[in-house]
Specification:
Blueprint lengths: L1 E4 L4 E5 L13 H10 L4 H11 L3 E6 L2 E12 L2 E8 L7 H16 L4 E7 L3 H10 L2 E2 L3 E3 L4 E9 L1
Parallel strand pairs: 5-6
Antiparallel strand pairs: 1-2, 2-3, 3-4, 4-5, 6-9, 7-9, 8-9
Length: 156
């Protein structure tokens, strides 16, 4: 179901299992982050994220999954926000930034607080999260590869 048509090439739809087809096309920064933090395969991370998300969304670019994202419940109206994308995201950066600001309230509707950990090497994701209003804490060593990660969070 289309939630919003952003322009002729871009649509926002509810996240479905079929959107896992994005996996082979993930940005290298997202693949590095998955492996450094958890050590699991991108396919497992994508499947888990899709299954756990309440809510979850997919941005289709020319009818193909370009970005998947959502929020998964942790506890007591606290959620884990996540986003995985392809290099197609670079084809519409202004639209992505503007629309993501409008979509954030949809992700927060069931949560008072959203958080996650972002690889310090993922500079573009960190810049985007700051722009959205997330607090980005100093990086700490964590994950299975002992890399630097920033705790990011936002609350109502």
């Amino acid at each position: 179901m289309t939630i919003k048509k952003m322009n002729n090439d871009i649509q926002l739809v509810e996240l479905e299992a079929k959107h896992a087809a994005i996996t082979p096309y993930l940005r290298s920064a997202d693949v590095q982050e998955i492996q450094a933090f958890s050590g699991i395969s991108p396919a497992v991370a994508v499947a888990f994220s899709i299954a756990q998300s309440r809510p979850g969304f997919c941005i289709l670019y020319k009818k193909k999954p370009a970005v998947i994202f959502g929020a998964a419940p942790i506890e007591n109206r606290k959620g884990c926000i996540w986003l995985l994308g392809t290099d197609e995201i670079y084809n519409y950066p202004i639209t992505f930034y503007r629309e993501s600001k409008k979509i954030l309230p949809l992700l927060m509707q069931d949560y008072n607080y959203l958080e996650n950990y972002v690889d310090a090497r993922n500079v573009l994701s960190l810049r985007w999260l700051k722009w959205l209003g997330f607090t980005v804490k100093d990086a700490q060593i964590m994950g299975v590869e002992n890399k630097l990660f920033h705790h990011v969070f936002i609350g109502k």
